[in-house]
Amino acid sequence: MSAYYGKTCSVSEMTGLTFTAVSMNEDRNEITFENNQVRFVLFHNQDCCESVHVEDICGELEDLVGLPILLAREESNVDEPALCDGEESYTWTYYKFATYRGYVDIRFYGASNGYYSESVDCRKEIITV
User: Fold this and answer.
1) CB-based burial of residue 21 (10 Å sphere; 0-12 exposed, 13-18 middle, 19+ buried)?
2) Which one is predicted more confidently, 84 or 33?
């Protein structure tokens, strides 16, 4: 199985899809949603002077498996403070998902010296056999 690496997309493209697996990588900087046709990856292209990672997950990723995604939405910087005093720039990115089983909120936190991106992207990969 191989994948075609497409361009970044809106997380809302997941609405209506059913995934067979949803997981976070060991470094806590990527969340992957996949089935036998498509894979979506929430990620950040890391550069030298910033850090972006999953700070918290409210709910269980397993609740997003086996049922259609009813809600897939991104929000950012909802008036949350920086994690550490003195950080020059920071960004909170929230991903809100729902199925009939429940809600899952994934909170990414990015910090930098202000000259680098702290954003999270969503990449859609079409899986081919």
Assistant:
1) middle
2) 33
Residue 111 neighbours by CB under 8 Å, 6+ apart: 50, 51, 52, 82, 83, 84, 87, 89, 90, 91, 118
| pTM for the predicted model, two decimal places | 0.88
3-state secondary structure of 63: helix
Cα gap 124→83, rounded to integer Å: 30
Residue 15 has pLDDT above 90, yes or no: yes
- In angstroms, the CA 9 to CA 45 distance is 15
Nearest to 76 by CA among 53, 109, 46, 43: 109
Average pLDDT over residues 22-51: 92
Rounded CA-CA distance 97/95 in Å is: 7
